[in-house]
Design brief:
480 residues, Ribosomal Protein S5, domain 2, Rossmann fold, alpha/beta, 3 domains, single chain, 12 helices
């Protein structure tokens, strides 16, 4: 007698299971995220299909593992390789998400064409577009199309696995996971059950055959990954492709990477011929070469390179009601904290003023290294003054008004020299560390500028490093 399918209730946020429906998930605290779905009974004959490796039911010594060739696969795009940690790892699953029209399919189509030219068969599974639509995009971004690049417009995961067994691809692209469905699950495509089942089959194939798989996923209106959160735990790498719709700059960022760092970012520019890599992201984000009122250049260290960008602030008197505080590219809570420090420690009365802060170029940084530049941009707009020289400001602002040191400040100074800046304002501790590496600095001491002689030879006088102990010293260095 066949077993009946049982009904369970699963939270779409965390994947926790319940025997009955309830309004709030007791595990993650989310409301109205628990949905009902049926679980088909497992067949005894196929009970062993859930094994991920080819080792049949026996433990192996860890020292004996790793005899295979784990050389990373070159995607043909250096910026994509950078974000992945040096290339695509065989047998890995990579999830890439982004808003509609941002360029996800264009990016992976370019990678697919170059991998096919170099390594062999590549299977592009399209659940949203026909062969003709994919061909039109490939003609535009690839030019000549490799004979090893296969397109398969299919949404049935069992048919896709059969096609993989037939052509034996070295790289697979699933576009997108929300359109896939399995015959073993009794629900519509895109549901929690279907996404988990299809992802599970892809994981088993990738690990058993040592074939890397790229999965395209949709995002919600809030910009988060659509579908169950469990899929993020199942895959090896989670990439996010973002950018402003009215700008051509696109940023590829890693939120999870089992084979590399999550600090790296890749920069691309959308053109009529596809995605063009932007190796010099700092130079592309900064357009103005002159010091302007309410504008300060800041820098953060992303992975293996410093990234410079412009922070603009506008302070105007509030006409009616409460003063507005608007932040684009930085945290709203961080802006409120910086405004409180400026009022308490620098004497700026901003209670009846609207404050708008924007990171130019579509960058969205969560680093505290931009605190000092935000504070100086607000001061510049409030006082109507600009710096007399091209400078860069980087540092974390504490609640006491003191400046806290940031990592890799010496590399930020080196990049500032390359870009032609005249001065860099840093926390005092970072400035003294820079002096040890052979650069003359000025450290603010009670309102005075005290020169510090470097301990290393070959001092470069092309840039001045200004050290500040607190926000008041930084403002004096900015206005001098």
């Amino acid at each position: 007698m066949a077993k009946k399918a049982k009904t369970v209730f699963i939270c779409t946020e965390c994947g926790n299971e319940y025997t009955a429906w309830q309004g709030q998930c007791s595990y993650c605290g989310s409301w109205n995220t628990i949905v009902e779905h049926k679980v088909a009974p497992a067949e005894e004959a196929t009970a062993d299909t859930r094994r991920r490796t080819g080792v049949a039911g026996r433990p192996v010594r860890l020292g004996e593992v790793g005899t295979h060739d784990y050389t990373r696969m070159d995607s043909g795009l250096s910026e994509l390789n950078r974000v992945l940690g040096g290339g695509i790892v065989p047998g890995s699953l990579t999830l890439i998400s982004g808003e509609p029209g941002i360029g996800k399919s264009t990016l992976i189509a370019q990678a697919a064409g170059r991998i096919a030219d170099k390594y062999g068969p590549v299977l592009y599974v399209s659940g949203e577009e026909s062969e003709e639509q994919v061909k039109l995009r490939a003609d535009r971004v690839l030019g000549s199309i490799s004979d090893s690049l296969y397109i398969y417009p299919e949404t049935n995961i069992e048919n896709i696995m059969a096609a993989c067994d037939s052509i034996k691809p070295c790289f697979i692209i699933i576009d997108s996971i929300q359109t896939m469905y399995s015959q073993s699950a009794d629900s519509v495509a895109g549901s929690l059950t279907q996404i988990r089942e299809c992802s599970g089959q892809l994981i088993r194939y990738a690990k058993n055959r040592n074939v890397p798989v790229f999965i395209v996923a949709h995002v919600t209106k809030s910009g988060e990954l659509a579908g169950p959160k469990t899929i993020e735990h199942m895959v090896d790498t989670v990439l996010s492709f973002s950018g402003e719709r009215d700008r051509d700059l696109r940023i590829l960022r890693s939120f999870k990477n089992r084979f590399g760092t999550t600090d790296e970012i890749g920069a691309f520019r959308m053109t009529g011929e596809g995605m063009v890599e932007v190796p010099d992201i700092s130079g592309s984000l900064i357009e103005s070469q002159e010091s302007e009122e309410g504008s300060v250049v800041s820098a953060v260290y992303e992975g293996s390179r410093p990234v410079f960008f412009e922070i603009q602030a506008l302070v105007t008197r509030a006409n009616v009601g409460f003063a507005r505080r608007t932040a684009i590219g930085i945290s709203q809570n961080r802006l409120n904290m910086i405004l409180a420090v400026l009022e308490k420690k620098a004497g700026l009365s901003l209670l009846d003023h609207d404050v708008y802060v924007n990171v130019v170029g579509g960058m969205n940084t969560g680093s505290t290294s931009t605190d000092l530049a935000v504070a100086l941009a607000i001061y510049s707009s409030f006082k109507g003054k600009s710096s007399s020289r091209r400078l860069v400001a980087a540092g974390e602002v504490g609640l006491t008004g003191n400046l806290r040191s940031i990592p890799n400040a010496d590399k930020i100074v080196q990049e500032a020299v390359r870009l032609g800046y005249e001065a860099v304002i840093l926390p005092e501790r970072n400035a003294r560390q820079t002096a040890q590496s052979g650069r003359k600095i000025d450290v603010a001491d009670g309102g005075r500028s005290v020169s510090v002689t470097p301990s290393a030879p070959d001092v470069s006088d092309s840039i001045r490093v200004l050290g500040a102990a607190n926000i008041a010293d930084a403002i004096r260095a900015f206005a001098s």
